[in-house]
Fold this sequence. Notes:
This protein is mostly helical. The chain has one domain (2-61). It has helices spanning 2-9, 14-29, 36-43, 48-61. The longest helix has 16 residues, at 14-29. It is flat.
Amino acid sequence: MLVLLAGLAHGCSNQQLYEAIQNNRQQECELLPPPQDEECLAAYNESYDSYREALDEAAETQ
């Protein structure tokens, strides 16, 4: 949450904000015991480009 607020305050781009949030989530995953940590990391391993494509497709279907 702190990363989100800091990003907004400094005018980060959407991509920078997305990557900061993903990094924060990945750090939280590393605190979990195996194999939960690997499953968690896999859930937050989507690139920004893939994320944007999925958002664009969802917007088109609405």
